[in-house]
Automatic annotation (TrEMBL), chains A, B:
SMART domains recorded: HTH_LACI
Source organism of the structure: Pokkaliibacter plantistimulans
Alphabetic keyword roster: DNA-binding, Transcription, Transcription regulation
Domain spans labelled HTH lacI-type: 1-56
Pfam families linked to this entry: LacI, Peripla_BP_1
Segments for region (Disordered): 314-343
Protein name (record): GntR family transcriptional regulator
Gene3D superfamilies: 3.40.50.2300, lambda repressor-like DNA-binding domains
DNA sequence: AACCAAAATGAGATCGATCTCATTCAGTAG
DNA sequence: CTACTGAATGAGATCGATCTCATTTTGGTT
C-alpha cells in the first residue's frame, strides 16, 4: 500500500534515493532527505521487512525451539534471549515441543522455511538427534541450550551437569545422608538427566555407596509419591532425594507432605535449576542453580558470533548450590521410623 | 539457492507448474507431479516463505506482546497460543514489554513492519493506550488478553475481573474476616488491577465495611512485608489479604512467614490467576482461577476469526475460586495479639 | 567560462514465490 | 481426419525492497 515507490513519487525522487534515505541517509542531500522523510511521514510509510529480508537474504529473526515455557527455566531463558536479541535488532520466532523429540524435525524445518538466520534449541537428546545432524549438514548456525552434547564441535550453553549433580550429592553426603536416591523425568529423552545421574553415581561411589537406579517419573515436571514408592522395591528407606529439576522437586515435596512425610525432617530434597520461586516457598528449595539469564544471553551472543562467521569458544557456565530449608542434616541416624519404605 | 526455478528447470517444466505442484497439486498431471517432486527432493528444495509472504501479502505469523513470560500466567497462555496457532498453520513472533507501557508502541510497530497478520496483546492499560488507538485506526486485527477495556468494540479475552475479586472478597467475608486488605502491583499501569480493586471494594461495602486503600507494591510480581507495613499507617490489624496475582501472593506469604506471621492462622492470603504451582505448595494457595489455557486458545481463535472478517462476539471467560490452605476462617475474633500492626 | 572530481541520483536487475491469462495438449465426437 | 472441449502448461507481471552501475549535479578551480 504505502510502499517506498509511492513515497519516492510523492517526494519526486527515484526508488533508489528513497531507499537510501532509510539505509544510508548520509549519501542523500539534506534537502532531498527531508523531502522524502516528509513524504514518508505523510503517507504513513512502514518499511516492509519481508521485502528487505527477501532481497538481503537475512531476516534478523532467530528461531527458538524449547520444550515448554511453563517451566520457569525456559521462561527465564526466553526472556533473557528476547532482550538480548532485540538489543541487536533481532526478533524471536518461538516454537515449543512439549518435550517431544519427534516434533523437533518438523518444527525446525518450518522455521528454516521462514529463513531464520539462526536457531537456539533445547532438544530432548543432543546425542542422537536428527535435527542437529541436518543443521550441521546444511551448516545452519545454531546453538544448543541446556543440552550438553559429547561432540565438542557443537556449540552448547550449559553448566557442567555431571559436576553440578555431583556437587549436590556431595552436599547431601556431607550432611550425613547415605540413603540417597535420584528422581528424574523420562531418561531416554534427556541427555542432561543422564549426565546428572552420572554425577550422582560418581559422588556416591566415592563414598563407597552403591548408587541406586534412577527413580523415573512419567512427567518431566511432576513427581508423585506413589510412583516414587513403586520404584523403590527392595530398597532401604531413603533419607534424601536429588531431583533432576526444580519442578519435580517442588511437586515431590508437596506430595511427600501430603502423604505425611516431613521435609526435611523425614527426608531431604534437592532440586536442580534454581528457579526463583523455590526461594519464596516454605520450606525454601535447596537447589543447584543454573544461571538462566546468563545462559539465555550467552546463547544469543554465541549465535550472533557464529552468524558473523566467528568460532566462539565457550566453556561451561558456572553452577552453584543454593542451600535451602528442603535439605537438612540427617536426623535420627539409627532409627528409620519415619523414613520412606516400600509399601 | 534451491529455489523453485531450479526445481522447475531440473524437472523440465515452467516455474508456474512447479509452483502448482505445491499449492494446487490437483491441477498437475500425475507424471509431471512426480517429476517435479523428484527434482525437489533431489535438490533439497525448501520453499521460501518470505517470497510467499511477500507475494500473497499474508505471513501466517501472529505477533504476541506480553509483559513477562516468567509469570506463569503468560507462559501458560503462550503455550496454549502456540499450540492453537500451529494447528492452524500460524507461527508466533514473541515480544516482551516487562510491564513497561512506554515500549509497547515501538514493539508493535516492529511487528507490523514484519507484516504479522494479527496481534495478541496484553498491554499495561487498555483504557488509554496509544497502541490500541493506532491499531484501531489502521484496522489491524488484534485481540487483547487479560486486559478488560471498557470499550465493547475492542475484542478482549478475560474473566470478569471485578466480579472475580468480588467473589474472592465474599469468600473471605464468609470465613468471618472483616479486616481485609488488597495488595497489588503498580496500579496506574494495570487496568485489571483497578477492576479487581473495584470488586474488592464492592464486596466490603455490601457488608458495611469501608474498603481500605489498595496496598501498592513496587513490583508486579513481588510483594514485601515491610512495604506492606508501611502502607498500613493508621489501619487496624488485618486478618486477610487479597492479592492481585499469584506471584504477589506467594512472595507475600513467604515474607509474612519470614517475619513470624503464620498463614493462614494469623492472616489469610488469596491470590489471583490460579497458577498450577500454587497447588503444589504448602500452604497451598487459595486463588481465583483464570482459565489460562482456554484464554490462550480463545485468543488465537478469535483473532483468526477477525482475520477472516468475522465479528466474533465473545463473553467473559469463567473464573472460579479455588480454595486452599492459605485462606482459613478468622481466628481469635476478639483478640488481635498476632495480627499485623503498623510498627 | 570551462573543467573536473566528488557527490547525488536514477535505471534496471534481482530476491523467490504466486497469479492471471494465454496457449498448447490430449481425448472425444462427428 | 477435423473440430472441439477441458485439462495442463507456460509467459510474464507482481509483491516491495536493495544493489550495482551508469548518469547527472554540484561546487570548487583555474
Amino acid at each position: 500500500m504505502t510502499d517506498l515507490l509511492s513515497v519516492a513519487k510523492k517526494a519526486g525522487v527515484s526508488r533508489a534515493t528513497a531507499a537510501r534515505v532509510f539505509s544510508q541517509p548520509e549519501l542523500v542531500r539534506k534537502t532531498t532527505l527531508q523531502r522524502v522523510l516528509a513524504a514518508a511521514e505523510e503517507l504513513a510509510f512502514r518499511p516492509n521487512r519481508l521485502a528487505q529480508q527477501l532481497r538481503t537474504q537475512a531476516t534478523r529473526i532467530i528461531g527458538v525451539l524449547l520444550p515448554d515455557p511453563r517451566n520457569p527455566v525456559f521462561a527465564e531463558q526466553l526472556l533473557a534471549m528476547e532482550l538480548a536479541a532485540r538489543q541487536q535488532g533481532y526478533a524471536l520466532l518461538v516454537t515449543t515441543t512439549g518435550y517431544d523429540a519427534s516434533q523437533e524435525l518438523q518444527l525446525v524445518e518450518e522455521m528454516l522455511c521462514q529463513r531464520v538466520d539462526g536457531l537456539v534449541l533445547t532438544v530432548a537428546d543432543a546425542e542422537n538427534s536428527e535435527v542437529l545432524a541436518k543443521l550441521q549438514r546444511e551448516s545452519v548456525p545454531y546453538v544448543l541450550v541446556y543440552n550438553q552434547p559429547t561432540d565438542p564441535d557443537v556449540q552448547a550453553i550449559s553448566v557442567d551437569n555431571r559436576l553440578a549433580m555431583y556437587d549436590a550429592a556431595q552436599y547431601l553426603l556431607a550432611l550425613g545422608h547415605r540413603q540417597i536416591g535420584m528422581v528424574a523425568g523420562p531418561m531416554a529423552q534427556s541427555d542432561r538427566a543422564r549426565l546428572r545421574y552420572d554425577g550422582y553415581c560418581a559422588a556416591l561411589r566415592e563414598h563407597g555407596i552403591t548408587p541406586r537406579p534412577v527413580i523415573e517419573m512419567a512427567s518431566h515436571t511432576r513427581a508423585s509419591f506413589p510412583l516414587l514408592q513403586s520404584h523403590m522395591q527392595g530398597n532401604e528407606g531413603l533419607t534424601a532425594l536429588l531431583c533432576s529439576n526444580d519442578l519435580l522437586a517442588l511437586s515431590l515435596i508437596s506430595d511427600l507432605q501430603r502423604h505425611g512425610h516431613a521435609v526435611p525432617d523425614d527426608i531431604s530434597v534437592i532440586g536442580f535449576d534454581g528457579i526463583e520461586l523455590g526461594e519464596l516457598l516454605f520450606p525454601s528449595l535447596c537447589s543447584v542453580v543454573q544461571p538462566r539469564e546468563a545462559i539465555g544471553r550467552e546463547a544469543v551472543a554465541v549465535l550472533l558470533a557464529m552468524m558473523r562467521g566467528e568460532q566462539p569458544d565457550i566453556g561451561k557456565l558456572p553452577h552453584r548450590l543454593r542451600p535451602g530449608e528442603s535439605a537438612g542434616p540427617l536426623q535420627r541416624p539409627d532409627t528409620d521410623a519415619h523414613r520412606i519404605r516400600t509399601r
